[in-house]
Amino acid sequence: MSTALLSSAYLPPVSFIAAMASGANVLIEQHDNYVKQTYRNRCVIASASGPLTLTIPTVKADAPKQKVKDVRISDHGEWRRQHWNALESAYMNTPFFMYYADEFRPFYDRKWEFLIDYNMELTGLILRLAGIPVGLKLTESYCPTDRLDKNTLDFRSWIEPDICRESAPSQQPYWQVFRQKYGFLPNLSAVDLLFNMGPEMRSIVGFNPF
To answer: Rounded to a whole number, what is the largest CA-CA distance in the chain?
Structure first.
């Protein structure tokens, strides 16, 4: 069985979940260098004003380079309250937000120290609520692409939004609450798909029970 290798992402895009749901084992990279303006600490949701980017502030590193596993979350700007208010405003009228809201709310009430832990728990929650029984494991060391096992599918470059848009397969359109206003918005955060489609998320991302 193949292994899908992805970077850590905050409320990851639908394409990430599709890669995880492909029937492969899933490894999340934690030993790569942290780079800003990627999905590691930001996600995109559909708001009444169009696509909205939510960004988690991080503590500035003491050294020029910092591994993802060492990145700490900052409390700057009351981001937890702002993110939750944005999610609630964007999805309160979707069919399934009310069923899942209590599962997500604690992530915006409690403080987390490390970004990698926060992302892992949130990603695991999305998979569980979608009924996709994939176990997530963290990498033990960094391995360059050219040295990976032949059965490992390397999706780490998708952490860059531009690369993800160009490389990820086209997505099956699904109902979105603002679709009539903006048309279908592909590859938003997986919570957009979850809140809009609920259990149907499994079939849309191509989950194949094994």
So the answer is: 47
Q: What number of other Cβ atoms are within 10 A of residue 60's Cβ?
A: 8
167 CB-near residues (< 8 Å, 6+ apart): 157, 158
Give the containing element (helix H, strand E) for 29: strand 25-29
Q: Using alpha carbons only, what angle is made at residue 156 by residues 152 and 162, rounded to the nearest 5 degrees?
A: 140
Letter for the amino acid at 91? Answer: Y
Contact between residue 6 and residue 28 where contact means Cβ atoms under 8 Å apart? yes
- CB of 88 closer than 8 Å to CB of 49: no
The CA distance from 136 to 140, in Å, is 13
For 60-73, the pLDDT digits (tens) are 988 878 999 999 99
91, containing H or E segment: helix 79-91
| The pTM of the whole model exceeds 0.70 | yes
Q: Is the dihedral of CA 202, 204, 206, 208 positive or negative?
A: positive
**C-alpha dihedral, 145 to 147 to 148 to 154, nearest 10°:** 10
d(CA 128, CA 149): 28
Q: What distance in Å separates the CA atoms of residue 86 and residue 46, rounded to the nearest whole number?
A: 10
Q: List, for residues 148-178, the tens digit of each pLDDT value.
A: 999 999 999 999 999 999 999 988 999 999 9
